[in-house]
User: What shape does this take?
Amino acid sequence: MAQSTYQWKTATSGGYTYKFVTNDPSKTRFYTLKNGLTVILSPNTKEPNIQFRMSVRAGSNTDPKNATGLAHYLEHLLFKGTDKFGTADWAKEKPYLDKIDALYEKYNKTTDPAQRKEIYKEIDKTSGEASNFSIANEYDKMIAGIGGSSSNAHTWYEETVYNEDFPSNSVDKFLALQGERFRKPIFRIFHTELEAVYEEKNRGLDNDGNKLDEAMMELVFPTHNYGQQTTIGTIEHLKNPSLIEIRNYYNKYYVPNNMAAIFTGDFNPDEMIKKIDKTFSYMVSKPIALYNPAPEKPLTKIQQVDVYGPSAEAVEIYYRGFPQNSQQSLLLNLAKSVLFNGKAGLIDINLNKQQKTLRSSASYQQMKDYGVFNLSATPRQGQTLEQASKLLLEQVELLKQGKFDDDLLKSIVANQKLGFLQAFDSNNNRAENLSNEFILNRGTEWNKSLGEIEATAKITKAQLVAFANTFFKDNYVIGFKHKGEDKNVIKVEKPAITPINANGNLTSPFVKSILEAPVKPIAPKFLDYKKDIVFGKVGLAEVLTTKNNDNAIFRMSYRINIGANNYKLLPYASTYLTFLGTDKYTSEELSKAFYNIACTYNVSVGTEVTTINISGLQENFDKAVSLVEHILANVKPDEKALSNLKSTILKSRENNKLNKGQIMNALTSYAQYGNVNPFNNVLTNAEVNNIKAEDLISLIHNLTNYEHVITYYGPKDLAAFTADVKKVHLMPKEFTPAAPAKVYTYATQNANQVYFANYDMVQSEIRWLRNTGLYNKTDAANIEVFNSYFGGGMGSIVFQTIRESKALAYSTFAQYVSPDKADKQYSMIAYVGSQADKMTDAVNGMNELLNVLPQSDKSFDGAKANVLNGLETARITKDGIFYSYFADKKLGYDYDSRIDLYKELKPITFASIKDFHTQKVANKPYTYLIVASDKKVKMEDMQKFGAVTTLTLEQLFGY
Assistant: This one.
């Protein structure tokens, strides 16, 4: 059936021949231009935006053995411009860049440390001279200027992919930019970008999961580059880059017959292919030899890896899988779903439902030549890594013995079909899927990918079990992540770098011509809540509906006006609920029942609102909603589940204290609200141990007795929906009054101060915070433009200065954060993640920007245009309309707030945001939040920023 449903066909339109697959819901066309460039077009006219990928079939697999990390370096450099943009005077800049090329070659051949240091000084000096003629981040300014908002790229084993989005009225501008970008890239501003890669490497050295994965992959693939070369590269190779080698790599692999230009979104494919052909016709095809290794020998024994670090303990098990689109990989994907699908798999039911580990999962990651089948577990309190791994392997044994429900395979296929219905809604998802197809098989097996569900449906239980018995043997790598000190960790040392000249006020003639080219404006489409939402009532509850005219999927919710601020026990009750049965069904039977009808439900507890979400196919609406109502009304206490839950909570709390991200979140809340704040105002460990089942059950039973609103997005209209929901949703005669909500008092920053949390890491994480006053509608336009200009992306002032010019961090941002409610305050937040020995420089660099706003008229124009473009091209649809309605209501609007914002943006000037910066941001006291190792940062350095308070984890977390 798969072959008859999805077949390749050829067609000609607009003078171009293309291939397509019958019954493809994305209506994707595959073209091959005369020079070999693959072009993949997938039209979708629901919103005036386009997603773009330039996908190259080259990554870390094709790095030279003596220059690992090279493909990743190159990815960074493809944002630096050409001889036409990124430069103010190419003729004057070029001699300096040639000299830098030669200096790096000399540097690489020199082994004496003193001589290397002298050569690097010369590189630094020459780079500074070259920067007098370069224009940093001109590419990003162009993207922002034409309305793009997600410019990025990534490198992996066998791919380098450049991704953008842009409004559909800017196709000509966008193509002109991309055509130039890949014509003759110039590797300028290299040594500061190199420092950014060093920082990226150091961040990886602080990531225990990353270290474990690298060590395990080395054993899973003892000869293949999946295991022998990492994307980021070795420290030794990072220290000795060759611009000549990078140029050779570009010339070898960035050729049209090894690349695909992928567009998904609002365009006419006949018109688009002509423009793309004209844009990239200069590219010349070349013979290319891709990485083609000898096959790996079978793994025949169990191998163990042990990694140490400060984060929580975990166990991973890797099996080597099979080539893409092979029958064996199809079977492994199915085996993954039998083991783990989030609801009714063996791991879901036997481990997660029964809380036998803190959490467990299975996954299958597909590459071109092989895949990796992964089992993962985080041990619960008092459990060893060995015990957790034993539980995972026991589930594999059950799979091999066929001890799973006979109808599970049918349910897996039904859920895959539901996912397939939604897979092509998003232009971004389409672009990602099509890029992946090109990398794996040049897009030649799109028919197989579309037919995967039908192919899966043909697999019998007996076939799967037989396969599992041949595949799952003592042929895996097991990785234990222990808590402890990693005595082998080293970092990439900080070279001496003089800040370069970013020339933010300069604009090349090429960029000027692109930005000044006229475009047909796109009119914004704002919501009219009175028309876009149909309002009704069911008993006391207000009902909001909007119709799904695309497919048979429904999504509904009970939005209840209570949260954790009203009832501290509510988050624990919602978690407890997932482990409970009713008077009719066990917890496991309930999970299976939802999975069998391809429906889902969850209870999400926020600080102020609790939402019960139900979704699935409309044909199963009655079954799904009735089942949820049955659960809420008839759920029964389970003392064993509660005891396990308490243990789980306490272990999760231990692990949270080992997570630097959670520690920074705790510091942020402490700085914003003081020592009693939303993050730490939780039950103490003693109170957790004293939780009573009847208190949690009472909250669950009474959830829908509190005031709530019902929302529905689906195929039915208001009358039909209300008739259906009345039958199953019992309403109280009057709503139960809610307990008063806890109100938190905002802290006032009267003087600079430092909150420090000690954590064993290579880097330092620094965040600035200042509360700046209550919500004010009139500030909205200034805030949007200020954020876009100051700290919102790679073209922003913060990114250009901290990373591009001064090379102080890989990651940095700044944002004036708006509250979600009219009675809450704004806050100014900034962030730098830098090497610990660069902390002082990084803080000083950010403080300069917080106190004095640099003026770059071109950057401002681009930032403002980007905000306007975002409003003009945004289309809020489906149940997103409800989210917008509720968000506006909390801020005091009974209409779409973007209407006012759009009007108020037009007159904004640089002087407007400069005044805003002066009044709200500049020369004000801040609280500095620092997470770092006390072995790597000095107290006296931190004291220069303000009075230092070292906070304990107990103070931060409340337990």
The radius of gyration is 29 Å.
